[in-house]
Specification:
single chain; alpha+beta; Immunoglobulin-like; 4-stranded antiparallel beta sheet; 2 helices; 36% strand
Amino acid sequence: MTELVIPFFYSIFETNLYDGIEFKERGLYINLIFLERLRFMKRQLLLGALALMIVALLAACAGTPYTVKGSQRVQVKLSDYKIDTSLTSFIADKPYHFIITNAGQTLHEFMIMPKAEGSISGMSMGDRMSLAKVENISPGETKVLDYLFPSSTAGTHPQFACYYSGHYKAGMKQDVTVHT
C-alpha cells in the first residue's frame, strides 16, 4: 500500500509549462493534463452521441403526425377551386383528424367556418370568424388538423372553405353538417 502513496515532499513532481505536471515514479510518466483532456473528450463524445440519438429519435417521430386517441380520420383533398372530403356529416364533441392534401397547382388554405359566409372582404375578418384554419398549403403538400366540433355547433351547417384571393368565388367550398 505504501508504494501507491506518492510522498509530495520528495521531488517526484516536475513542472512542464507545455504539458503541465508529470509524475515521475518508477520510470512511468503520467501527464495529469493529458488525462484530464482524455476525460473531457470522453464526456464530450458521450454527450455528442446522446444528442445525436435524441435528434434521430425526434426526426423519426416527426414523420408521424400526432393523432388524438379515438379520433376519426377525414381525408380532405384541395384541388384548384374545389374541396373534396371523405366525410360531410360530423358528430359534435367527437374528435376528428383531418388529413389535408393540396392536389392543385396553387397555394391553398383550409378553413372551417361556422356557417356559409359567402365572399368575405378582408382576410382578418375570416380569420376571426373561423373555427379552425390551416394556412399556406403548398401544391403537393399534406398537413394535418385535429379538431373537435363543440357541442354548440350541433344542428348547424359549417362550411370548409379557402378564402385566398378568388378561390371561394371560384367554388372552393364544401358544406358540412354537425349533429348530436
